[in-house]
Design brief:
The complex is a heterodimer of chains A (about 280) and B (about 250).
Chain A: H1 3-7, H2 16-19, H3 32-50, H4 60-73, H5 75-107, H6 109-122, H7 131-138, H8 142-166, H9 170-178, H10 183-220, H11 226-234, H12 239-268
Helix pairs in contact in A: 4-12, 5-6, 5-8, 5-10, 5-11, 7-8, 8-10, 9-10, 10-11, 10-12, 11-12
Chain B: H1 4-30, H2 39-51, H3 54-85, H4 87-100, H5 109-116, H6 120-144, H7 148-156, H8 161-199, H9 204-213, H10 217-244, H11 247-252
Helix pairs in contact in B: 2-10, 3-4, 3-6, 3-8, 5-6, 6-8, 7-8, 8-9, 8-10, 9-10
The chains are: A mainly alpha (about 280), B mainly alpha (about 250).
């Protein structure tokens, strides 16, 4: 998942060394391709939509019209805003718990072994399976959604933090200690700064999952948010509304992902570390 | 004498599991059992369910996951390989794949039910949707991560396109494809639970939803613990596969 950033720009075939040396300058300018693929996709969509009723498969035009209606009435902004607020709130809570826990797991092997039975087991339980409890515990209000998102983000952030601590160069810690710094100084000055990119990567992975969790939670138990918009449209077979909400979710997810990459680049001037083990 | 390795490795695990169970029981005695059941209640629920149709419900969910996951992987790996080797395919498909992978699979549920009815097919479609993009992207990344000098070495020794592809590119891409499958298996578990809760009439997700509406908290705990155990097991299987099929290439990168 992490390969995109490093490999995208001067894009050449893996076989390039042997057969494309004579035509390194591509005859087609770069911007043509995304436009071409968007056009092809829209054409396929239109053709497919022509064969079905609008209550099954809305056309691009019907979807665009519905998008305009939802934006003009402010409904789309309102539902999207509510979902985003839930995501950010849950993420803040989850991150505030996960970073210290992950940090302690990385520093102390004993603490790591104490926590591992929990983290290794609970991270395989889909956050949405917890929805039944959170409804019993917290009721149908905001607290249950915040808990789900916090639960969801905890594992990816804690494990990324732990991995970051484990990968800090030992010589940096030794440098602080040999210059007379305490273990606390080493943690603060040598370990913490090198762990921040890992924390960002953990947040980036957790954010992808959190979108799925918030949609499920809003479908199952909410009366606002993009998930609710999708599920309430079902009752009137308004598939055009459903597609608008789906596209909005995709765009929001893409924007959040790119924001994390940009933030990491800004802070560290290099790509995010690869975290295949999350 | 107590073995030192025992103190360092096994003891913390035992200690933490004991603390967890102790805290659970303590919490359960303080809180209304409707909110938080005791250990023995969960154990009893497990036995009642196990004598009923628990095994068949688990099997239903696993079959859906494996079907959707299998079909999607069969489609995704060739597409990923094509995107990695042919620049034009990459340029055409990169945009759509990058966009669709950010759509939460569960958001597709209303469309899936409209297209396929509230059936197995709709749920299998959602599993496929949560698998296909992750596996495609990882397979493509695998091709792009092939060490250039290995390709050059093959070509220098006179290997043609197909030989390089089969002997150099494919073996290096497989561990990445497997990692993609491992990641998407996690996503598939989360999707199946939501999908069965919303649109299923059997399976583990339905079990949870049913227990919720009838307020049988013991059953909810059984379902959640089972999900954790099965998810962990499949993850271990994929880890073993990655190690078996050249995980060292991935680590060495």
């Amino acid at each position: 998942m992490s390969a995109r950033a490093e490999t995208s720009s001067p894009w050449r075939s893996v076989f390039a060394p042997s057969w494309s040396q004579t035509r390194t300058a591509h005859p087609v300018p770069g911007f043509v391709w995304p436009i071409a693929s968007a056009l092809i996709l829209t054409a396929i969509w239109t053709l497919a939509a022509n064969r079905f009723d609008v209550t099954v498969f809305p056309s691009p035009l019907a979807t665009a019209r519905e998008a305009w209606r939802l934006i003009a009435s402010g409904a789309l902004e309102e539902h999207a805003g509510i979902s985003i607020a839930r995501l950010i709130g849950g993420f803040a809570i989850g991150g505030m718990i996960a970073v210290p826990v992950g940090f302690a797991m990385g520093i102390s092997p004993f603490f790591r072994r104490m926590m591992e039975p929990f983290t290794e087991f609970f991270r395989f339980i889909p956050a949405i399976a917890m929805v039944v409890f959170t409804l019993i515990w917290f009721g149908i209000g905001e607290a249950s959604k915040l808990f789900l998102i916090a639960y969801n983000s905890f594992f990816s952030i804690a494990m990324a933090t732990e991995m970051g601590v484990a990968r800090v160069e030992r010589s940096r810690i030794h440098a602080v200690l040999s210059l007379g710094g305490s273990r606390w100084d080493a943690a603060r000055l040598a370990i913490l700064p090198s762990v921040v990119p890992y924390i960002l990567q953990g947040m980036r992975i957790g954010m992808g999952r959190a979108f799925g969790t918030i949609v499920s939670a809003e479908i199952l138990a909410a009366n606002s948010g993009l998930g609710y918009l999708i599920y309430s449209a079902r009752e009137f077979s308004r598939m055009d509304t459903v597609v608008v909400a789906i596209v909005t979710l995709g765009l929001l997810g893409l924007a959040a992902d790119r924001a994390f990459v940009a933030l990491a680049r800004r802070l560290y001037r290099h790509a995010l570390p690869g975290n295949d083990n999350l | 004498m107590i073995d030192k390795r025992f103190v360092n490795t096994v003891l913390p695990y035992l200690l933490s599991v004991a603390i967890m169970l102790g805290m659970w029981q303590l919490a359960a005695t303080q809180i209304n059992p409707l909110f938080f059941p005791r250990l023995e209640t969960v154990w009893r629920s497990f036995w009642v369910l196990a004598q009923g149709d628990l095994a068949s419900q688990v099997l239903v969910s696993l079959t859906r996951i494996l079907t959707g996951f299998g079909i999607a992987s069969l489609v995704a790996v060739p597409i990923g390989l094509l995107m990695g080797t042919i620049p034009a395919v990459h340029r055409l498909l990169d945009g759509p794949v990058e966009f669709f992978r950010f759509i939460p699979p569960i958001a597709m549920i209303v469309l899936a039910v409209a297209w396929f009815g509230a059936s197995n097919v709709a749920i299998v479609f959602l599993i496929g949707f949560s698998t296909i993009f992750i596996v495609t992207i990882n397979t493509e990344a695998g091709v792009l991560h092939v060490v250039r000098n290995r390709i050059r070495a093959g070509q220098m020794m006179g290997a043609g396109f197909w030989q390089v592809f089969r002997l150099v590119v494919l073996p290096s891409a497989i561990p990445h494809a497997l990692i993609g499958m491992r990641i998407s298996m996690g996503a598939a578990f989360s999707t199946i639970v939501s999908a069965e809760m919303i649109a299923g009439d059997n399976g583990l997700g339905y079990l949870l939803q049913d227990a919720r509406t009838t307020l049988r908290t013991g059953n909810i705990f059984v379902g959640i613990v089972l999900l954790g155990a099965i998810g962990m097991l499949t993850d271990r299987v994929f880890r073993a596969l990655v190690d078996r099929f050249g995980g060292e290439h991935v680590g060495a990168r």
